[in-house]
Amino acid sequence: MSAQDTHGSASAEVAARVERRWATIAVIIIVVMAGLAAFAGIHRATMPQPRVETIDPSRIHLSGEFVESNLGSVLEASGAVTVRAIGQQYSFTPACILVPADTPITLRATSADVVHGILIQGTNVNTMLVPGYISEQLMRFTRTGDYLMPCQEFCSFGHEGMWGKVKVIDKTEFANRAKGGGRLSCVGQ
Amino acid sequence: MLVNRKLILAHFWLAFAVFGIALTLGAWQMFIRSPIGTWLSNPELYYRSLTAHGTVMGYVFPTLVAMGFGYAISESALQQRLVGVRWAWAGFWLIVIGSVMAVIPIALGRASVLYTFYPPLIGNVFYYLGVVLVVVGSWIWVALMSINLRVWRKANPGAPVPLAMFANVAGSYLWAWTAVGAALELLLQIIPVAAGLKATIDAGLARVFFSWTLHAIVYFWLMPTYIAYYTIVPRAIGGRVYSDSMARISFILFLVVAMPIGMHHTFADPQVGAGFKFIHSAFTALVALPTLLTVFTICASVEIAARVRGGRGMFGWIRALPWDNPMMLALAFSFVMLGFGGAGGLINMSYQLDASIHNTQWITGHFHLIFGGAIVIMYFAIAYDLWPHLTGRELIDVRLMRTQLWLWFIGMIVTTFPWHWVGILGMPRRMAYFDFGDPAIAPQALSVTLSAIGGFVLLASGIMFIVILARGMRAPQTDAGPYRFALAVHEPKTVPVALNTHALWVALMIGLTLTNYGYPILNLALSSGTSVPAVYVGAQ
Ligand code: HEM
Ligand SMILES: [Cu+2]
Ligand SMILES: [Cu+2]
Q1: Same domain, yes or no, for A37 and A65?
Q2: What is the whole-number distance in angstroms between the Cα of residue B360 and the centre of ligand 1?
Q3: What is the ipTM of this complex?
Q4: Which of A54, B144, B236, B360 is a plausible cystine mate for B327, CB 3.0–4.6 Å?
Q5: How many interchain CB pairs under 8 A, A with B?
């Protein structure tokens, strides 16, 4: 006894039909998945950063957007907040990022040396920091409190110690603190 | 007709020896960073181990398995002595030399850059040169597979190429081309810097080059497993391949769509714009197609075996399967892990969902489940199936084989399920230490402990595997007969040229890579001011 008895043109036809049906289902699954991703990207604005921005990491301490005095959170005239940060072996500056709840926030960050990553636990904020390039990510927190912010890419022997923090505070409290101008952070609090 | 058995055995033994070492390192890593491990006073040791584990498991082990299996397929499917045996040995020794060359700087802590390299972190130049030698050794294999097929074609003009060889050669071409990305990165960017000829490097461009390799390399790892699904499993369990042409189409699809999608590994990167990320993510959806087709064809082939054995009913046939056959068991475990792993993969490939798990322990959990689980368990099955034909001795201990497969399956589930979970909680990967005393991290302690326990189950299973093969070298002699591959329900008498040759598909693979990678690479390579100073590991 062998599979001989499944031979014959009738069974071949059945086989071809079943196979075609399955192939059609497979193609539909794939088209639907790709469509969903495109829809979510456009409709919910969860798209990767659109533009590539470059920066010279050997000069970021000296001038430009990422000089030390410009790092931290700033309340823009529009009511939105911009956070600027850098990663270096093995810490983030600022090590504690202060932001308001329920506010559109733009995170702009880069690396001063090797590849790092920023991940804010409990959220989907997650981006690589590649030296030479600026990463930009939009975020919005609905819950106040403290979040851990580890570096998520190996950056040499101290990688396991590279943990930052994000402190989300009430919107009005943030506005009060921002009154004096300057760059806010929660380092040392 | 397996003539060059020594050559094939040498590849398999070296593969499983380095696998055993790397597996031990893996279990140690899992333990030492878990709450039951004691704090490692020197975290640097963890990264040495991680570099060795990743380099061996990612590059050396699967390459050797693919090569040894490829030589076995060439001789037994084509029924033709291997042409170029000396070259094959040269390739083998290049891999030996390359591995030793890479491992010395790793052991000395001079190359703790992990297997993904990621400049501007730069390690000792001999580490990279060693990896290059391993790849060059494997390219000799690619050339030999192609030459052997050509020799056979000359002798059998117009005949259908046996499915196993058709797939094997497709896999070798995929590997040859996907390795080019990392080769360009190493030769043009990293090695000049590691050798001290240059001091700066474009880290963004390097990540794009590496993504060229990083995706399709997983299909290279997968090839021996898929070849076993189609051409060994049905024969071993007494069935037939449901459809020879569907099998060919699946392998062709892997060849064409595995390549132009690697930039899904740069979803969270700043050096690639949204447009190319979208294109690559759309193409990524396509790569699910050959796997869906395979699942169907293999399930149908297995059902044929069951019905031949008298199985009946809509699902009743499942009971009629030869469950005491290790091949059947391995296939079932492999499919279960492929199912869970594939579901996880759908999450990784969507930009929106990926954001919450990118570079977390979810990713390490995911690829251990798919690669270490679904793929490697079939490497075990391939070895068990081939061994008597290579050694001329019987593998008697079928019970031990079943236990070993069960343990690998259970170990993998226990290890990787909690591993995924802590990833969802946001636990970052590649860290030597976690402060489980921190209240924010404490909830992850239990899961990490479970994973560590699973790791030891895997280690035990791995040791059993090696013991079974070693004992097989001393078992009583038998004549296992010629090594055969599964027949199709309808054995093809003629096959359309498109399903019998690779040229068209290789051209498509290269063309799609150039359209999907050409512009981003040129754009990054030509833009000035993005090169950054190298940071040498271990130089402090
Ligand atoms: C005893 C079983 C195993 C255990 C416990 C284990 C454990 C680990 C651990 C802890 C890591 C590092 C994760 C991190 O720090 O982020 C790792 C990485 C890795 N493992 Fe395993 N592993 C095992 C088996 C395997 C197998 C069978 C394979 C594949 C054949 C494999 C391939 C890899 C690869 C490619 C990496 C990536 C290294 C890197 O990220 O640089 N492992 N493994
Ligand atoms: Cu890091
Ligand atoms: Cu990929």
Answers
A1: no
A2: 14
A3: 0.91
A4: B236
A5: 211
